[in-house]
Amino acid sequence: MVDPYQYLKDEPYKLYINGEFVPSESKETMEVVNPVDNEVIATFYKGGKEDIKKAIKSARKAFEEGPWSSMSQKERSELIKNVGRKLMENKEKFACLEGLDCGKLYPSLTFYELPQAVDGFNYSAGKARCIEGKEIPVDGGGHYLNYVKWQPYGVVGEILPWNGPLMMGCQKVSSILAAGNTVVIKPPSCASLSLLELASVFEEAGFPPGVVNIVSGTGSEVGNYMAQSQDIDMLSLTGGVETGKKIIENSSDTIKEIALELGGKNPNIMFDDINIKQAAKWALYGFTLNSGQVCVSGSRLLLQDTIYNEFVDELKKLCKDIKPGNGFDYEDGVNFGPLISREHYQTVHNYIQKGKKEGARVVCGGEEYKDPKLKKGNFIPPTIFADVTPDMTIFQEEIFGPVLTVTKFHSEEEAVNLANRTKYGLACGIFTRDIKKAHRIAEKIQSGQVYINTYYSKGIMESPGVGWKKSGLGKAGIYKYMQRKTIFVDLEEGSLPPV
Question: Per-residue pLDDT for 360 more than 90?
Fold first, then answer.
């Protein structure tokens, strides 16, 4: 069994600014707490206003004066590919750091999240070499040429979430760099280790100073300054709706491009023509992956009335196979981890209490674990509420934990209506053997991605989703980090303006 603690540093993890590993100006540090037992396992420097100002200045210089902008697509591609290669060589170290910091399951990190992180760089390395514009026909005689091209914004600020900082960080940062931007990264304050360590990979890969900068710290100080800075050309955030609102407010004076990937309260619709045992496994996976801390998790199960009781019973049986614990104890059958922090644990616990108070029926879970070892950590059992109505808080609000609401429907129209009855529009699952019905419903669902007879994306880089309604703003993929320019050329000799 792997010893994850061997990869931790004794000294505080440093910021990475202008190609150098540096302490913060204040020399203040923040603690890294393992959510499995809430023990402090490391520290890192807390960046502040002066640190983020230096990082932005460094990124600006690297974009405008440094070699990054003058490099060919092939040269940038090779450097991005190097990062993926170096990351793969150190996959055990990064899986261990992410597992300790976030409480994730080691097998999930090893076989999914790390390969996805590496693939982000590999995919972007190829994409960097084939960003294409197009020619637009504007007249019939070839008098004028109009072509459209995509160009980088310049300096991009990327604020990352705590539920998957390494995987999502690599996917987003690789796209930023492939687009030709420089970047200032703010890791999540409660899960910074893997991103701070990733700086060493960029260093080894040969990136010029200032192209990549990583400043840890609080959102209220580092994140807000990034939003307010005139020298950040484009700002991207993955986080909650309230944080997204603050970003919009704080960036309003700069009129910079904003991309927001926000929350979800995603419906998972099951019709009565399905294989119940098979579909129930997808439903379980949909709301328990990463202990429910996934923005696209299937947290609202909509069941056709004719299979309602049978399906709920089957799902309850499956929950008995959940074994909580330390994600590195996978050889002992552990398959369920903790929530990220004690604060978030309390938030999810409060939602469970609210669900009970509002009259939802507890099918399983709903109580705190009694095991003293589990009580030290942030473990909440998979909790299923049945007979949930749209007016209940747990139907409407994102809980971001292993809590599933179950609601009954009769007709196809009612299913669509229930699916769309929240302020969110991120993802939706549809399970039926009637493929025509599945496509009809997919067309009517108000969300950026839809899964038919499966759950979760099968191509995050190739086919990125966007949020509808309050689930987000902006484009997806590499073009999220680029701006469009249209150019008109007069091809005639001695042409004059029309009289």
Answer: yes
